[in-house]
Design brief:
This protein is an alpha+beta fold. It has helices at residues 6-14, 40-51, 54-64; strands spanning 2-3, 21-24, 28-33, 76-81. The protein is globular.
Length: 82
């Protein structure tokens, strides 16, 4: 399991198939994903909107994905907890 920020987790859950969402509520978000299939443009757009600034969004994205190989075809579970 890989911890990411709330905004990144929300963006991933918003673009995931319902079958891949383990939980999505105010306390936690868990989603099964294949990193290479993530729509990073959609994630960046969502996170930028939430932060209101592209620079802050990029820092958030970089921090959230620092231990994830975005070229990996192996399914992982990303999560966020309040």
């Amino acid at each position: 399991m890989q911890l990411v920020s709330r905004f990144v987790a929300e963006a991933i859950a918003e673009n995931a198939y319902d079958d891949n969402i383990i939980s999505d509520n105010d306390e936690s978000i868990e989603v099964r994903v294949v990193p290479s299939s993530l729509d990073m443009d959609a994630i960046k757009g969502y996170v930028t909107h939430q932060h209101g600034c592209e620079d802050a969004a990029q820092v958030d994205i970089d921090d959230s994905f620092k231990n994830i190989s975005l070229s990996s075809d192996t399914e992982i579970t990303i999560y966020w907890e309040a």
